[in-house]
Amino acid sequence: MAYSDFTLEKVSAVLGITTQEADLFPKLVPLSIPSWLNETLGKRRKMMLKLG
């Protein structure tokens, strides 16, 4: 079976597992993106668009 054929529903049914939603990281807070990172990603994006 190809990896792309797997779904959570199929695996749960075959293996008999159940899932449960949970807040795994409740104390995480968003951080601002440093300007140097934003600039670097912008430059790389332009370069990749030119290369195709």
Question: What does this entry show, briefly?
Answer:
With 52 residues, the chain is mostly helical. The protein has helices at 8-15, 35-51.
Number of strands: 0
Number of domain modules: 1
Secondary structure tally, helices: 2
Structural class: mainly alpha
How far from one another are the termini? Answer: 33 Å
Q: List the uncertain runs.
A: none
Q: Label the overall shape.
A: flat
Calculate Rg over CA atoms. 20 Å
What percent of the residues sit in helical stretches (DSSP H or I)?
40-55%
| Residue share in β-strands | under 5%
Indicate the mean pLDDT: 89
Main sheet? none
User: What series of H and E elements makes up the topology?
Assistant: HH
Overview of the structural elements:
There is one protein chain. The protein is mainly α. Helix content is 48%, strand content 0%. It contains two helices and no strands. The protein has helices at 8-15, 35-51. The longest helix is centred in the last third of the chain and has 17 residues, at 35-51. The mean pLDDT is 89.
Strand and helix layout:
Layout (H helix, E strand, L loop, with lengths): L7 H8 L19 H17 L1
What are the main properties of this structure?
single chain; 52 residues; mainly alpha; flat
